[in-house]
Amino acid sequence: MQEHSKVHLKHSMVDNGAAMEDSLFPFIGDNYNSFVRTPDEEQSDHEVDSMPECQIDLTEVDVYTRLEHKERDLILAAELGKSLLEKNEFLTRENERVQNEFQDRCEILEQQKHELRQRLEFKESEWDANSAQLNSDIKRAQEELEEHKAMLCAAEREKSRAVDELTQQNQKLLSQLQKSCEAERQLSIQVQQLR
């Protein structure tokens, strides 16, 4: 009677471990349930019934310890995956923000450039009336144009730098995500092997 209770307790704890693993990785839930109740394990239960009580206790401790380690590893892997996804979402939002700022800056510069071109054309129409003043205005307009060109070049460089930085960060996160997926796959293989 005591041995039958221990076997029943072992089945109950394995079922609880399967439920926790299903909540983290639902795609392996069916396989885990098949591990818990298989014809081979039914035969193993009869063998356990015939084992000495001390050997049953050692086997149960080993199984429970393994399950606890695997469950802890699965939880850590899930938390790491969640953290990586949150970082990726943050970087995506930052990338969109930088692109929007750059677009707004380009529109302002284009508007200023258009206004300068209009001023230049107006001054050229007054050339005959006041040549000296026109030359001065042209020079000033050219200086402003060069300044805005420099600002545009600086904006281009800033955009390029930001894009490169975000690309590197995304590549790093992708590499980390791949490692996390590989770790998750290895954990799944180890869980399969425990069957």
Secondary structure: elements and pairs:
Layout: H1 2-24, H2 29-36, H3 39-50, H4 53-125, H5 131-193
Coiled coil: 81-183
Protein name: HAP1 N-terminal domain-containing protein
InterPro entries: HAP1_N, Spindly/BICDR_Dynein_Adapter
**Total domain count:** 2
Percent range of helical residues: over 70%
Report the sheet with the most strands, covering strand number, pairing sense and barrel closure.
none
Q: Structural class of the secondary structure composition? A: mainly alpha
- What's the SSE pattern? HHHHH
How large is the share of residues in beta strands?
under 5%
Pick out the low-confidence regions: 1-39, 41-56
Count, helices: 5
Any idea what the shape is? Answer: rod-shaped
User: Total strand count, please?
Assistant: 0
Average pLDDT works out at 73
**Rg, Å, rounded:** 35 Å
Distance between the termini: 26 Å
Entry keywords:
single chain; 195 residues; mainly alpha; 2 domains; 5 helices; 92% helix; rod-shaped; HAP1 N-terminal domain-containing protein
Could you explain how this protein is built, in words?
InterPro entries: HAP1_N, Spindly/BICDR_Dynein_Adapter. This is HAP1 N-terminal domain-containing protein. Pfam families: HAP1_N. The protein has helices at 2-24, 29-36, 39-50, 53-125, 131-193. The chain is an all-alpha fold and 195 residues long. The chain has two domains: 2-79, no CATH class; 82-188. α1 runs antiparallel to α2 and α4 packs antiparallel against α5.
